[in-house]
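Course assignment 3, question 2. Fill in each field.
Student: A.L.
Task: Predict the tertiary structure for the chain below.
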Amino acid sequence: MLIVITSETALEQEIESLNRLFACGLETLHIRKPRLEKVALKNYLELIDVKHHNKIMLHQHHELASEFNVKGIHLTEKHRKMLENDSEYIKNHQKMGRVVSTGFHSISALKKEGANYDYSFLSPVFNSISKENYQGKEFEVMASPIKVIALGGITSATISEVKKMGYQGVAILGSIWQSKHPVTAYKELQKVYKNVFYDG
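Answer field:
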């Protein structure tokens, strides 16, 4: 899986860039906008071409999942702590045909809870591009029965290393949104990803 996570903050021509990423073959977009109220997130979603809504994962305001027929929902660490029965919450969404993902920051937490999810992020694998002083831990997940996606410091140069470490995909954020030309940066990463994960 090659996943793109949105920038937390608004960017110039962001929606235009997202629609272009989908046109380039992006299959999964995680919308992570923790500061957006429900109405603002709804407005944001309405700007994205409706034919791509089924490729979107929501990090906040999960109740919008039905309204926009999105791919699924992502549970943050905060969500997991707030839910009394997260397994029931997960199963209810999965019964409705939605993908449910989450993220972990340690191998032990991944092993303990990861099996409940369709896939999980593990981060930071390498030094983060989008967060200062967020040091990579180079987790290895060889032979893990859980579908694990590498997050943190993913660039064209680190994708081949990620495959060797046992990950089943990558999530990218800083390497495209901190570029002057996000769509071009994505295309370059996409090309390397396909070479490594499909041919490697």
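Instructor remarks: The first strand starts at residue 2 and ends at 5. The beta strands are 2-5, 28-31, 56-58, 72-75, 99-104, 119-122, 148-151, 170-172.
Grade: pending
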